[in-house]
Amino acid sequence: MSNTNTKMITTKDQAIQFLTTMQHLFPLVHPEDSMSQIVNRHKERTFDDNQIEYLNARFDEVYEVLADPCLTIIEEIRPKMKAFNK
């Protein structure tokens, strides 16, 4: 069974942790983005097909737990991140 078929995010805390990790690794990526359209500075896709499948599954789970993941990023996650509060 692949990770895309097994629910990994089932609680608010898990959803916030996932979003926090994504913000640290890829601060310009948001839950509403199409993962296949994200490119690096060389105009190459940032994520491969397996990563896209995994991330889409996780973001779907986040939306099952949080009413507005983008608002959670803005109000709960970014205020605690040093990079956004210099």
Question: What's this entry about, in short?
Answer:
The protein has helices spanning 12-25, 49-65, 69-77.
Helix content: 40-55%
- N to C succession of SSEs: HHH
Ends apart, CA distance between termini: 43 Å
- Strand composition percent: under 5%
Radius of gyration: 13 Å
**Weakly predicted, low-confidence segments:** none
Helix-strand category? mainly alpha
Average of per-residue pLDDT values = 94
The gross shape turns out to be: flat
According to DSSP, the number of beta strands is: 0
Query: Biggest β-sheet, characterized?
Result: none
Number of helices: 3
Tell me the count of domains.
1
Fill in the keyword field for this structure:
flat; mainly alpha; 86 residues
Can you put this structure into words, describing what you see?
- There is one protein chain.
- With 86 residues, this protein is mostly helical.
- The protein has three helices and no strands.
- It has helices spanning 12-25, 49-65, 69-77.
- Helix 1 (12-25) packs across helix 2 and helix 1 crosses helix 3.
- The N and C termini lie far apart (43 Å).
Give me the secondary-structure topology.
Elements: H1 12-25, H2 49-65, H3 69-77
Helix pairs in contact: 1-2, 1-3
